[in-house]
Amino acid sequence: MGANALNRSLQQKAAIMVFLMMLMLVPLTPVATAADTNPDNLQAQHIAAVFDPVSETTTVTWQNIDTYNTNVPFYHSATYIVHRHSEPITLSNIDVAQVVDSVVACQANIYVQYANCLSSGGGGQHPGHSVDYLVDAGTNDTFYYAVTIEWDDDGTTVTHQELDPDVSSLTIGVEEVTSPIETPLYFQASYSLADSETTLTWINYYSPLLPNTNEPLPNTTILIWRSTSEISRSNGGLVYQGLTVATLIANISSDMESYVHVVPPNTNEEAYYAITYFIPNKTGPGEDFVDLRFLSNNALEQPILEDNRPPNHVSVFSVATTSESDGTGETVATWYGVPGETGERYDLYVSGAPFTSIYNTGVTFLGSVYEDQPLEDSNSPYTYQRSLPIGTLGWAYYCVVTVDAIGLFDASTSGTSCDSVEEDAFSNWEKEPTNVHAEFIGDRTIRVTWNDQLGVEGERYHIYSSNGVPTNTQQFATQTTYHGFVNDNTEVFDIVIGPEIVSESGAVLNWYIYVTSEAQYIHTNGSYEYLGLNQNSFGPVEIDITPPLRTSIVNDESRGDLGIVAMEWGNLQELGETYQIWRHTGSPFTESSISSSNDDGWELVLDEIQAGLDTSATIIRNVPIQDDSEQDAYYAITVCDQFNNCNLEILEGMTGNSRLVREDAQAPTVQMELTDEEGVPYTSPSLIPGLYTVKIEVSELLTAPPVIEVFSSAGYNETGDGAEMTQISLNLNNDNKGPEYTYEFRISNTEAAGDLSIRITLVDEADNQGLITNTSFKIDAKTPTIAVYAPSPSSEGSKYLYGNKINLMFAAEDDVQIAELQYRFTFNYGGLTGVTSTSPWATAEGITDVNGDGTSLVSNMDFSSGTFDPGQHAISVRALDTAGNTKTAQIVFVVDQCINDENGKTVCTFVETLKPEPEPEIVTPSMTEPPYVLVWIAVAVNVVIFVVALMIVQVSLTGPKKKKRGDDDEDDDWMSEFIGTTQEVDMDDITGTGSAAGSKPEEENKSEPEPEEDDPFAVNVVQRKTRRKKKVEEEEDDDDDDDDLSWAGLDDDDDDDDDDDDDDDDDDDDEDEKPRKRPVRKRPARKAAPTRKRPVRRKKSDD
Q1: What local confidence, expressed as pLDDT, does residue 925 receive?
Q2: How far apart, in whole angstroms, are the C-alpha atoms of residue 326 and residue 380?
Q3: Which residues have CB under 8 Å from 770's CB, separation 6+?
Q4: Nearest to 410 by CA among 338, 320, 332, 304
Q5: DSSP 596
Q6: Is 1082 exposed, middle or buried (0-12, 13-18, 19+ CB in 10 A)?
Q7: What's the rounded mean pLDDT across residues 454-465?
Q8: Beta-sheet strand order (sheet of 445-451)
Q9: pLDDT 10s digits, 141-173
Q10: Is residue 433 pLDDT above 70, yes or no?
Q11: pTM for the complete prediction?
């Protein structure tokens, strides 16, 4: 088994085991200085054994003795014998032990001296011994090894079986574990000579025919090797590693039981084959297994011969012929045998033509000559004699083929095994055609005629020529030129002189013509060409193959209006010449200034132009061009003479015979654009008043500026009979743009509507005239008209109730075309019932084209009145024509919601909101009515009060009289309170009298003002005034009388409030004190003289 046969894990484990076993053997292995054990009889020393699980081999090693004794000379004839047993080997069982191998103890030719046979560790030179034992497959046991010795003592074999433990016999066994056999069985091989194939067969280890029930592991394949040496267990690992001459020829499925190996050609060797399994992942993932021990008869022990190499050809072969006058003859073939072949034969073949294989058509087998060993031993040639059939004539080709003992031969022939000879058994007949004639007919052609040969059928005629002088039989092959052949019954042949043949001087050539005959004389495919030159030649023949000179083009003109290109060239005035006109639409002079009409791209447009007897200096011809042609093309003129020798060379340039011509049969075209005054492209089909510019870009150069006409069907004419357009740019440097021209015209607002025509006339450089007309525009200088038929306006008293439909119907007319009708609503128009709002313009629907040309449109639409609030609304409509002119109209209508009230009266929401609010009813009562009576009474009362007030004032201004204290004082107090002061009026003080002044201090002393906390800055503070009464009840009555002052028209509300507050204070005092006569409270006067305060009257108000 090879190194890669088992898994890598097993190799590592094996290495570790070997290392451990070596360590175990170290103490048992004697060192160089260790003494021999029982060396007298040359016993093996230091035996050791190690098992290698990879190669499944046990290696047994030992050494010769170290010290010299009398038996050492026997080493040269001694042999060590290695024994193997399942138990420790002793004298009692050594006879049943397995003999593994025998080893020469000491090779006399290497270790000449006896002493040299001693161990190298003891002073000798012998390195020791080693034996490898291949353990059988499927072994799993412990085995013991021992080494004995025997030698020849004067012809007597002396055997010594000294088995000292661990010296020449192991006491510790070797554990040997090998894999079982798992390879294909009954492997066989057979070779087929006819097929050059080797067929291999075997029985699969996993076959159901065998007792083994195991299935192959997945991806198991079969490996097949081929080798020129035997493949066995000893070299299986090397085979797998590719280290031998063995070759892996197949890796096939494990269920196959046969394989066919195709043996390569030219193989002649013995081959060995071997087969085994490749089992992936057998012992674990990534651990593949290949059994390379070849123990199941899965490798050939005997080779098979694979021979498909034919024998060599003979090296010497010749033929010779003889002929008789009676038409008979004989041919003899001679050759020598092939060295190294045994039992071969020689087959002879003949043909009327050379052949490279015996299987070629026309090859005839003549016979076989078998090996003649005595003849070969005497170095004599083989011979074969053939009698020629009567009528045989021509060359015969003979070959000999060697066939070996197993029937192999090479069907191909070689120069050494073939030879040819001219055989003649046809002497009674002429072998050439008769009446040979030749004539030069022009066009570089020689016409040859003859009469057929007599006496043979199926002949072939060959035509030859020689230049200048006739030839002969001896120089025929070197002085003639072969031109071709024709078959029997064809008595004419044209020799076409190729362009490679020229006349250097321009003179005519003189040729001689020969016609030979080739016939099949007896040979089925072989033929013979007779070259006797008895009556088969003609000459000389005068040949003119010199072309005329090249002409030159004088002028060219392209006329697109006539559809022609006119060419003019020089007349060579050669006898019988003709001219040709060629055209090329590409670039014939890209690589050179010289071209040829034979080059690709040149087109013959005019041929056979006969000059005849024309003696003019130039010739003119017109070449028609296609109606729509517009391209650059080269035109060329070539010439041929009367023998059709043509000068096909085309030279570029003004002096040459070619010109670049512009074929132009198309009228110029334009790209037109109309712009407005701002230079913006105008896209509307209708033109309104303004200035416009026509701008064109022409497809090619013109002979003159374009002429433009701008007019309308309604009489508008801006240009009259035509005006030239203004050139902007020729754009000569821009290949993507042509010349540009412009023209301006104006449309006034008085122009009548009509179709506008823009007509442009152009003439290009080839006189092609183009007429461009644009009628896509209209003049539209007027606005459209519009009429509204529905809804009914509110001004006519109509209204739309909820639930009704509001019909919108309006029409518009235009002198050119209406582009669009639109409408929009204004809700709560006039703001009578809410906020006014307007919807955007919307496109009208329900449109009818009255005239079918868009000049009169009617829109009819319905809307639900429920979408409007009760009130006044408006609808606006407008019409837009194609020129952008607009016209608008408006209708105001009313939508209302009406119901019947409980009285059966119809009440409408919008009508009710428009009614004015009712005026208040003015009632003019009589002066005697109750309200006025009360008024009069109130007036009278007030007058009385007013009079009384005046009287009181008057009384108060007069000087008062002294009265007694008592009740009269109370009256004074009452009056003081009435006039609005709490102080006693001192008339003497007012008038400045002394009596008044003298009494003042006394009164001040008598009067003790009550302490108060009023604001010291207050003046004339209104306070509640009370009279002094003897009884409390009287004071209450007085209070009531004093409080009721409304009859005098005084507003005492505020005072009352203050008095109420004072009353509250008084009430509190009354609760604490007994009722007494209160003196009149006096406000302390300022230090300045006191002023008199008048009571203030206030009007009573609601505020």
Answers
A1: 65
A2: 33
A3: 667, 668, 669, 670, 760, 761, 762, 763, 764
A4: 338
A5: E
A6: middle
A7: 85
A8: 434-442, 445-451, 492-496
A9: 999 999 999 999 888 898 999 899 999 999 999
A10: yes
A11: 0.36
